[in-house]
Amino acid sequence: MGKGPFSFRRSSSRRRPKKAVHSSPSSSPQPPPQISTSSPPINNNGNGLVGGGGGGVVGKVKKKAGGARLWMRLDRWGQSELLEWDKNAIIRRAAIPARDLRILGPVFSHSSSILAREKAMVVNLEFIKAIVTAEEVLLLDPLRQEVIPFVDQLRKLLAKTGSSQLENDGNVLRGGKWLPVSEAAEGEQYELPFEFQVLENALEVVCTYLDSSVADLERDAYPVLDELARNVSTKNLERVRSLKSNLTRILARVQKVRDEIEHLLDDNEDMAQLYLTRKWMQNQQFDTLPGGVASNSTTAIVPHLRRLSSTRSGSVVSSNLLDDNDVEDLEMLLEAYFMQLDGTRNRILSVREYIDDTEDYVNIQLDNQRNELIQFQLTLTIASFAIAVETLIAGLFGMNIPCTLYETDGVFGYFVGGTSAGCLLLFLLIFGYAKWKKLLGS
């Protein structure tokens, strides 16, 4: 084919931008700006998420670009704001693999997982889907009805913790680094790391939600089962079927959370990876202090962190905090909620056992009625046999066969009475035999 003017112009127009790109590095395409269509921070003095800046974000959700989702960012001081971020912005900010965002998607909506990454912790517990770092938490879909209590409770806790640390602690976070302060006094209470406070609140909200679901299940289950035991009907059976499906669904959700906690308790390495504050402070330490002095100056930059139900000096806590093999704080935290979930699971199993007992009782009732029907059918069969014998005799005498009994006067009544008495005697004999063989109930 010849080269026409259109083909020449199109080819040249395609080659010119490439030459311009290679010739001048300054003309390289700029990276896409980070999607930060953030609304104004939520008024923490308000009554909830809907007021203040939250209302503006709800209106922008309909106009957001494809792939952008609504997130809430809470820092360790309880300050929060709503933002619309896409997948790439979240990956760059939290430094997590792209596959971890699938765990927070709708496909794994009812799955439970707590994953530890280098700089973040991915939490997917029922309706709470969050990415927790050492300095902030990114919460997905914060305006859901189930998530709002978690957000309010976490904001109040972080605000209280931050104010108490500013008043009672000389450690102040400035510029993303903990400044050296004097050692804590003996007997002072220490707070959990930021990521464990978030995890504890998430587990508390989820366990409370599951407990309330089980309480509703118990309140609805026992009257329905008692009604079924009194009256076996199609309506009652349908109600029990719906109850069993609801029980199975709740049991699966409780079991998933319980199994995830049990998996973490069985692996100390995974628990050690969840200490984000520990790793963050070690990185800050190595960035600010010389290599030889860093190992001997640990106590000076450690914030106040407490062990559960314990009072220790700042130096002891600091030495234990930076020990990578020390997972006692998280272990005690997870064990408490594991026991609570195990108790919730046992309550569900007790309801299921009650359902099984009721079904066994109903089956016994149905078997008893079935046996009564079989006995009644056997009685009717014996009576039919006796009547059939009398019908046979009557049929034989109904034939046109010569017989002297036809010529005897008054013999009909005696003959019919004797035949009926014989058939009745036959019925009693067979019925007594069935009783003797225990084919019929007493």
From TrEMBL:
Organism from which the protein derives: Citrullus colocynthis (colocynth)
Disordered, as annotated region: 1-55
Protein name: Magnesium transporter
Coiled-coil region: 240-274
Record's function text: Magnesium transporter that may mediate the influx of magnesium.
Entry similarity comment: Belongs to the CorA metal ion transporter (MIT) (TC 1.A.35.5) family.
Main location: membrane
InterPro entries for this protein: CorA_TM1_TM2, MgTranspt_CorA/ZnTranspt_ZntB, MRS2-like
Keyword annotations from UniProtKB, A to Z: Coiled coil, Ion transport, Magnesium, Membrane, Transmembrane, Transmembrane helix, Transport
Intracellular or extracellular location(s): Membrane
Biased composition (Basic residues): 11-21
Pfam families reported in the protein's UniProt record: CorA, MRS2-like
